[in-house]
Amino acid sequence: MKRLLIAALMISGSALSAQAADDCGKVTIADMNWNSATLIGNIDRFVLEYGFGCDAEMVPGDTMPTGASMTEKGEPDIAPEFWANSMREAVDKGVEEGRLAIAGKSLSDGGEEGFWVPDYMVEKDSSLATIEGIKANAELFEHPEDPEKSAFYGCPAGWNCQITSGNLFRALKLEDAGFEIVDPGSGAGLASSIAKAYERGEPWFGYYWAPTAILGKYKMTKVDFGSGVDEEHYKACTSQADCLEPKVTMYPPSPVRAVTTGEFAKAHPDIMDFLGKLSFKNSEMNELLAWMEDNQADGEFAAIYFLQNYEDMWSKWLPEDVAAKVKEAVAGM
Which domains are delineated in the chain? Predict the structure, then answer.
C-alpha cells in the first residue's frame, strides 16, 4: 500500500501536467460514486494521460445527473460505467441525435442480479443450483428468528430490488415451500449475512447482485429458475410495485457501457477504440472489488494496482505504441 500511495501522489501531482499534450487537450471523466466505476474511471485517466497525452481530469458524477449533463451541456466527456437501464430512453435519444455515443461494454456481462447460494452447498448437492432443489431442501435454510420457517434474504427496504425480489418470491411460490423473506435492514446487513454464513460454512439463500466485493470474496452460485428471461414481463410487471400476477423469470442483465459525448467521439476515434475494448467480466471485477475492500483502496490506488498486476489484460486494449508508453509510466511507479 505504501508503494500505491506514492504512485497515487505522483498521479495527482505535477507529473500529470508534464504528460499532457496539445493534440489531445483536456478530457473530463465522470467519477461515479461506486467502486467499479471509480476504478474504471481512474484506469481511463491514467491511460489517457500517459498513453494518449491528454490532460485528463476526474469530476464528480452519478448516473442520472451525469447522463443529463452530457446530453444537455456536452460534459463530462466520458462516463466510464453507465448503467443504461436507469435512463435508457434518454440515452437512446441522445445517441440518435448525435449528442451521445456508446463506446463499448465496460462490464461485458452487464449488471447481474439473482438469487444465490454458496458454492459449497452446490458442491455437496448439485440440485441446489436450481429453484426446485432449493424448495425441496427448504429445511436447510434456517430462519434466524423462527425455526418453523426457512429464510430467504431479500433486498433492503426502500431499494428497487425489494420490489423485484418480492415479486419473484411470490412467483416462485417460495412461501408455499416454507420460506419467509428476511429484511436485512441495509445493504451492509445483507452483505454481513452472506459473510457470516460463508465463514461458518452454513446454508444461505437470498438476493444479491454483481459486480460486488462480496461476490469476489465469497464464491456463490446463481440459482437457475428454469424459466429463462422474459424481459418484457420483467419491465411491465416484475419491476413494478403494483404487479398483481408476477411470472417466473430470471433477471435480465442491465447493459453497462462506456458512454461519451458525441463531440468527443468524433474528435478522438483512437480513444474511442480503447474505450470500446476496455471491458471486464463480472468475475474479474468482483475480484478487484474484493481487493479494494480488503485494502481500503480508492479508485486511484486500485487503478495503479490493476495496471501493475494485469498487464496481459490491459495491453490488449491499446495499440503497441500507446501500450508501451503506459508500461513505461507504470514501471516508474
Answer: 2-109+256-331 (3.40.190.10), 111-238 (3.40.190.100)
Other CB atoms within 10 A of residue 233 CB: 18
Instruction: Output the CA torsion sign for 288, 293, 294, 295.
Output: positive
pLDDT in tens, 289-298: 999 999 999 9
Task: Kindly report, residue by residue over 93-128, the tens digit of the pLDDT.
Answer: 999 999 999 999 999 999 999 999 999 999 999 999
Helix axes 63-73, 88-96, angle to 10 degrees: 20
Return the DSSP state at 145.
S
| Residue whose entry in the numeric block shows the C-alpha cell 501493475 | 308
- Region for 172 from its dihedrals, namely left if φ exceeds 0, alpha if ψ lies in -120 to 50, beta otherwise: alpha
- Phi, psi at 151, each rounded to 5°: -100, 130
Computed on alpha carbons and rounded to an integer, the radius of gyration of the chain in Å comes to: 22
Taking the alpha carbons of 61, 65, 66, 70 in that order, is the dihedral positive or negative?
negative
The pTM (predicted TM-score) of the whole model is 0.81
Largest CA distance in the chain: 70
